[in-house]
Design brief:
The chain is mainly alpha-helical and 318 residues long. It is 68% helix and 4% strand. The protein has one domain. It has helices at 3-11, 21-30, 41-62, 77-99, 105-123, 148-158, 162-182, 186-202, 208-232, 238-249, 253-261, 264-285, 287-290, 303-306, 309-316, and strands at 71-75, 128-131, 143-147. The protein has a three-stranded mixed sheet with strand order 1-3-2.
């Protein structure tokens, strides 16, 4: 880890676009210890068993038919940064193409530094990730990542058993694989909302409706995953969630500020709001009925329906 190399990479940012993505990757990795991937055969088998068991349990509970992504990887932090530099650069390419002529060198350095700081922070904290690889060339090209050094470190800091914590993370990420696998249209739906929002920004306007729909869709994604976790995970996990929340709240003011700036508080709100919606649906119609949201795009609840589940049930009749 070298802060000097990180700063040098940022200040040397070049190119025609608003962000030098090669410099982002170099700076984020230079400021982040990769962590160990010295993993035994037994531990690697443990990851595989956790994922397979999660797929079976989630299928049984949800009645959804889905397959796991082709790419299921146990990574260190630098692997995760490289994968997400590729993802972020792809997502921002439409905006970069439209604004390439408006960013002088100084602005490019600031943008590159901000993005490298963000990816470095996330790389040191993300535990697992289901990546639908939005805007990828291959629409079937999804991926599932486990950042082993972060999982090991967090299990130790929470004083919980590593295999149990690892299994909990695996179940959570497989619930997201279930959603996108059961709804092949979901990636296209999110891409359309994202592209509409970005297109409006490049035109100098703000399409609030697109971002509201995108937020509603992500609230459904996060809430349904929480619902499946409650019913599919083969152990109590309230203590894991409580300890993880307490750890986040107990961080210093800088870490809390960064989490707020990255929208991680918004993600927590999506969890809670989406889970409340699906709990109400499940109470009245059952878990399988909640899966009706993935049958077609029109079945997604609107932003207003998320807070009034009975109106969604009247409209969709799951």
């Amino acid at each position: 880890m070298s802060l000097y190399r990180s700063v040098r990479a940022v200040t040397s940012a070049s190119g025609d676009g608003p962000i030098d993505w090669s410099a982002v990757a170099e700076a984020a990795k230079a400021s982040t210890d990769a962590g160990s991937l010295d993993i035994s055969a037994a531990e690697r088998d443990g990851y595989a068993d956790d994922v397979r068991d999660a797929r079976r349990r989630v299928r049984d509970v949800s009645a959804l038919n889905f397959d796991l992504p082709r790419a299921v990887e146990v990574q260190h932090r630098h692997h995760w940064i490289d994968a997400n530099v590729e993802t972020f650069s792809r997502l921002m390419r439409p905006l970069e193409d439209e604004t390439a002529d408006f960013f002088p060198g100084a602005a490019r350095v600031v943008n590159t530094g901000s993005m490298s700081f963000m990816l470095g922070f996330l790389g040191r904290n993300v535990l697992g990730q289901y990546d639908p690889l939005l805007l990828a060339d291959d629409p079937d090209d999804h991926a599932l990542y486990f950042v082993r050094p972060n999982i090991v470190r967090t299990a130790e800091s929470l004083n919980v058993e590593y295999p149990r914590f690892r299994r909990w993370i695996a179940f959570h990420e497989v619930t997201h694989a279930a959603e996108f696998g059961a709804a092949p249209w979901l990636s296209d739906h999110l891409e359309d909302q994202l592209e509409r929002g970005i297109g409006a920004v490049t035109d100098g306007t703000l399409d609030r409706e697109s971002f509201k729909e995108l937020d509603a869709a992500m609230t459904v994604v996060e809430g349904y995953a929480e619902l499946l976790m409650d019913h599919a995970f083969d152990d109590e996990y309230a203590d894991l969630r409580r300890k993880l929340d307490e750890r986040r709240k107990g961080r210093g003011p800088l870490a809390r500020l960064v989490r707020r700036a990255l929208g991680l508080g918004l993600k927590r709100r999506q969890y809670e709001r989406g889970k409340a919606f699906f709990e109400r649906v499940t109470e009245e119609r059952g878990v399988a009925a909640a899966g009706a949201v993935w049958e077609r795009p029109e079945n997604l609840p609107t932003n207003d329906e998320i807070d009034a589940p009975h109106t969604w049930m009247q409209r969709v009749d799951p």
